[in-house]
Write a structure and sequence with these properties.
- By secondary structure, the protein is mostly helical.
- The chain has eight helices and three strands.
Amino acid sequence: MTLSTGKGYKTFMFTSFRTISAILLFFSLVVPATVWAGIYRYVDEYGRVHFTNVPTSNKFLFYRGEGEGYKLETLINHFAEKFKLDKSLIKAIIKVESDFDPQVVSTKGAQGLMQLMPETANEVGVKNPFDPSDSIYGGSLYLRKMLDSFDMNLDYALAAYNAGPGAVRKYGGIPPFEETQNYVKKVKHYFDFYSRSKDTL
């Protein structure tokens, strides 16, 4: 029998190894890269980060393995740096606004992760509030504007994010609205939580 001799056995194993190697090489060349789960990204001229698992151009570069939480973490870090904000503050606002659901719509019409009203989204140049990158870009930019408008007073800036800057100016501080007062407390609670936490999303 062929397999009873050392020579025959070695020949059989060598042939099988070459066949398997050829098959693996074929699939590595022919099967699209998207079969192997991965995240690709590029940063556009406006500083917005775009992610995909199906790269359509050479603008997209491999970033890392798939993971929605890691994608949000990366976006938050990017826009925190861009707008000179604390990343834990952005996380806190997203937590209170949408609980990290990018498709949520409030009863008042606010949309996306950072719950931008249509007029606010238009003001900060957001075209798709349901896109995480667009929403975090717009929400972070708007928060930066509120902080600058109220001399870096966090309470006033958060109240303005929730109730509008006009209401904060009218009342000379946090408006006497239960929703807004609770909003400021909740955001500051989660701001402290995320500042202490070492975990990523």
